[in-house]
Amino acid sequence: MKNLFLLLLPFLYFGAQAQDLSPTSPPNVVLIFMDDLGYGDLEAYGGYPQRTPHLNALAASGMRFTNFYAAQAVCSASRAALLTGCYPNRLGISGALMPWSTTALNPEEETLATLAKKKGYQTGMIGKWHLGAKAPYLPTSYGFDSYFGLPYSNDMWPVGYDGKPITDTADRKYKYPPLFLLEGNDPVIPIRTLEDQAQLTQVYTQRAVQFIERHKETPFFLYLAHSMPHVPIAVSDPYKNKTGAGLFADLMTEIDDSIGEVMAALIKNGLSQNTLVIFTSDNGPWLTFGNHAGSSGGLREGKGSAWEGGVRVPCIVSLPGVIPAGTITNQLASTMDILPTLAALLDAPLPDQKIDGVNILPLLQQVSDANPRDHFVYYYDANSLKAIRQGKWKLVFPHVSQTYLGTTRGNDGFPGVYKSVEVPLALYDLSTDPDELVDLAPLHPALVASMTALADQYRRTLGDDLTKQPGTEKRPAAKMD
């Protein structure tokens, strides 16, 4: 992936910022969504041993978030929230939808793509969808003019952890259908082997660059949803054993170069000064896969939980002339906030139906005292409200949680064994205790009461399985035949 633009990329980022140019209207949008990328996987967030110079440069050109949240720590729920600006349980979406699931995102929901279409944008999606496994519940029914990618997670295939086809009918993976890359609604390229998986990052990147070059004369919205570092992980030939630090570090190098190629395409086509670039992840690392998983960066637990390591994710946002270069914010924000923020930036109307996201444009612009998101609620499982955060405080409600603590991690592509634990009521100060170890609830009974009262508002409207409340404001997901 090395070329002149990649070698000059950090200097081009900084040089563009130094000119302090205001973007022309309307800006292009490139939204890069990773799969299972942990809070501690990027060099800009303390990641080690992998180097991520292109993402370092992106962070230097814009804003890095330290308290940015996916809506839930699981694939489909998180993606529904990103695209609609809603808590996924508001939409009837939970968990990771199986290839045979009869549930899909309701096409009546407005998405980032339909919002952009209203303003005349060309829209395209590349990568993992995971909100409906077959037409008409694929991206082109949700505002995207084009789609190329996998309909769901790359591990949903009839292949074992050793990379060999499953022949044992008793194996749970045997029931998965063959995995194909789709063009629009049509299967076009089979993914049968780990070597096929190894091409995904490169193929997605090439398609992203082609999309940018094809639409450089008109405003566009590109949603690039990488399939990795979700397992099974694999890298193309130029990246095999590239770092000497293992396959995961090799993969992070390839992912970083992918971002470099996308940024280089923007620079080459004169679009870097007028493109909003957002980089984030759907949830934290899938830690049970050991050396094939990333890092939660010292946060508690990972994917599949309501602990910080499951839902707090890296996020970098850049738009020259609007977002000051080299800035960091510690304020709360979420993937749900991207839709209303984009609406404000594009001067587009918000969806008619209620959403949960807030406009964080003042935060991006570093407006004094901007604090658009006051709180965040942590739902998981089908519809269990497990915690709430307000400011620096996180109140955890009694529940059962998956845990990686005290378990044996997997190795070289094989998973470990999960455990479950009973979690008691607890109050944590995340500013001093990000790994959620010291319960301060006995010292702050009034705060516990006020935060519980705020959580009760969500229980009434969105429901809560833990307190057996159905919710009054939920909307139905689509049901496939």
Concise synopsis of the structure shown:
By secondary structure, this protein is α/β, with parallel strands linked by helices. It has helices at residues 4-18, 53-61, 75-84, 112-118, 194-197, 200-214, 247-268, 308-311, 338-346, 361-364, 445-462, and strands spanning 28-34, 63-65, 68-69, 103-104, 122-127, 146-149, 180-183, 186-190, 220-225, 275-281, 315-318, 327-329, 333-334, 375-380, 384-390, 393-396, 399-403, 419-423, 426-429, 478-479. The protein has two domains: 4-372, 3-Layer(aba) Sandwich (Alkaline Phosphatase, subunit A), CATH 3.40.720; 377-479, Arylsulfatase, C-terminal domain, CATH 3.30.1120.
SSE diagram, text form:
Layout: H1 4-18, E1 28-34, H2 53-61, E2 63-65, E3 68-69, H3 75-84, E4 103-104, H4 112-118, E5 122-127, E6 146-149, E7 180-183, E8 186-190, H5 194-197, H6 200-214, E9 220-225, H7 247-268, E10 275-281, H8 308-311, E11 315-318, E12 327-329, E13 333-334, H9 338-346, H10 361-364, E14 375-380, E15 384-390, E16 393-396, E17 399-403, E18 419-423, E19 426-429, H11 445-462, E20 478-479
Parallel strand pairs: 1-9, 1-10, 2-12, 3-13, 5-6, 5-9
Antiparallel strand pairs: 2-11, 4-20, 6-7, 7-8, 10-11, 14-15, 15-16, 16-19, 17-18
